[in-house]
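INFO batch 0412 | record 1 of 1 | parsing
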Amino acid sequence: MGFTGLALGALLARDGISATTLPNGTWAPPDGKPHFAPKAKRVIWIFMLGGVSHIESFDPKPAVTRYGGKTIAETPYKDVLTAGFVKENVQALEAGNTRHLRMNLFPLQIGHRKRGQSGIEVSDWWPHVGECVDDLSVIRSMWTTDNDHGAILQFHTGRHIFDGYLPTVGSWVHYGLGSLNENLPQFVVLGEPPGDCCGGVGAHGAGYLGPENAGVPIEVDPDNPLPFASPGPDVYRTEQKREFEFLKKLNRLAGVEYPDDPKMRARIKSYELAFRMQTAVPDAMRLAEESEETERLYGLDHEITRPFGEVCLAARRLAERDVRFVQVYHGTSSNRWDAHSALKKSYNDLCAKVDKPIAGLLKDLKQRGMLDDTLVVWATEFGRTPGAEGSTGRDHHPYAFSIWMAGGGVKGGHVHGATDELGFHAVENRHYVTDAHATVMRLLGLDPRRLEIPGRKRLDIDFGHPITDIMV
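INFO prediction complete | emitting tokens
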């Protein structure tokens, strides 16, 4: 539809025009107001593609080093497989038990220590985020069911990739609350999305909520942040402004003839919005406006940290301009967290690229007073096995992994949930991925069940349950 179509779709949705109404007229779409008092206004959702090893990040397990080289069956923890046998992943466990029993435990590839006043253990690959641990709620008991990279789509929609492309957490937030800034897209995506095998753009799509609620990809480039939105190099801004003014006159003439047509009003507004976005989006990407101190905070002064530092700084600038939901990806097809081999070499490289920028984002939000009402989520699709794949890596592990949240309405210096001694199963306060969705929505003042669309019934697990233990 082009950029103007994007703006028109957003306005139609905001005005309730694009919604489906039951024959008796009893159902109406959300009005953009929270269902109860929110603790956060906006979300920065940072997602690591490929599956970060939980036991070498935010849930260190020294037992895998103590019994390194032995199979699980040869350790005192040989019952961990059946101890974690639960109905949600029966099939996956039945398929994987034999393989895991034969797998030799792979020692931790990095050290770890207690950090901050809270004393939460964090791996030495995350020293800068570790400095912020007193602002984090670490959730060590996440689980999912997809053992392949379709888990990326599952984490964002709550359903297996074979269930199709359903609304994502960002699209539900957008659908329920709408915009805080009508000069910018309401749901923005930064970084390279996953490949088509893993959900692709569906990981920030809107499914049956319609494309007007999907994430809008933006490049961290003030000269070309929205390639599809540019009028072209041969069109001067003054010329385009005159074109918009002419279209506005024509639309207003039509508006005189059709004064009660809400689509006409929305169409007129869409041209104005599209024009404003062409200025507002590049302005948000002008990182050169930041101070040298801020650039250093995000690591823009070093080649290794600069690329992701720019992405994290752009996320803060968008949040500062009240973009409701900013989704950040890290880990392209050639640079993923999918450490089947050479885990130590891979993570030495990957963590060095993202640790300082993520910590810089947290520190920057906090010093600006924005962390109080900005919820930051760090997540990944699943964890990694305690045992070795080959001799130098770890395999996919859906039975237990870690995420963390910080900011708006979340306790700092807090650990929720636990895994067993090997990090094999989530055994305490277990949470399916939609519990993370429900937590985000609760902190934004939304009740997922009140967003349900007639004819689109969802199972209880799709809604999830808010993790109230991490909330202040």
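INFO post-check: The first helix runs from residue 2 to 14.
INFO record closed
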